[in-house]
Amino acid sequence: MPTTVTLDPLGVHCIFSDGSEYRRRSRISVPDRTAPWTGRLDRRQSRAHGLALCSGGEEVVVRERRHVRADPRGTYELLVPLAGTAWVEQGRASAEIRPGGMVLCEIDRPLTFAHDVDFLSIALIVPGDSIILRSPAAAREPQMLSGERGLGRVIRQLVSTLQEEREEFSEATFDMACDRLVDLVCLAAEGATDSAPSSQQAKVESSIRQYVRQHAADDDLDVNSIARALGWSTRYVQQVLRSANTTSRDLIRRERLLLAQSRLAGTGWSTHSIAQIAHSCGFGSHASFSTAFRAEFGMTPREARRGADRLPPPC
Predict the structure, then answer these.
(1) How many angstroms separate the CA atoms of 128 and 312, rounded?
(2) Under 8 Å CB-to-CB from 249, ≥6 apart: which residues?
(3) Dmax of the chain from CA atoms?
(4) In terms of DSSP bridges, do strands 50-56 and 38-45 run parallel, antiparallel, or are they unpaired?
(5) Using an 8 Å Cβ cutoff, are 243 and 234 in contact?
(6) Which residues does residue 52 pair with via DSSP β-bridges, in sequence order?
(7) CB-count exposure of residue 192 (10 Å: 0-12, 13-18, 19+)
(8) Tens digit of pLDDT for each residue in 123-148?
(9) Please, are residues 61 and 108 in contact by the beta-carbon 8 Å criterion?
């Protein structure tokens, strides 16, 4: 959806071919205010993510606290230069970026961004919660990333490919692709290459285990529903569990067996058959439930129930 970008007294103003508008409040300086300034913006926007190919004349963009208060966005942007040079300053961090480099910035914090006349870049626009949940460290300050080698190079190439093929995807597929990119960006920001960020692994694992425990009886519980409910990608959930030496399948089976053990021993389920308890805990087959129960606890469900029946009543 390409459009021409113009400047107005409040900042950037875009009107797209479908009639929609985009504004972002900021203070913009250009070398010659007497001459018309225009830029080019080609974007793909879903309900969650955005991707924009941007170009334009030389400018300095300053987003101050008053702009943030008047126009909060709740987003982060990963800026991937394709040509030219840009300068970014936010808080105590500042950097010059060229093709081969990238920067991740929070848009709702004051920042200064400047670029030369030949600058061309792709911006990946991400919901703020997606960054904060995955990597609190990456969310605290701008992240200057190298795209020359390793994971950074993969990210740069994926962003470029996604921009080129953006119109080929449905909105759901586009969002999933952007979500995978966010995983990689957070891994790169934390200096990781093949595992979930270590600074939050324990917290994420605890949240996953708690959710599975609370929803063990749900028929549709799987890794996809866990990721969707907690706001992470499926790949990220799998990484965290792999780091904990388990899988979503093993974790779900374990929690369902513990739930069944509790129900077999509880008086509230004494009138239900073992098959009914198995079904209530998410097991589709009585036989498979009995096999799994014996492998886990060293006794059959019937023996577990008899043992509970022989326990003395509570005082």
Answers:
(1) 55
(2) 223
(3) 92
(4) antiparallel
(5) no
(6) 43, 123
(7) middle
(8) 999 999 989 888 887 787 888 888 88
(9) no
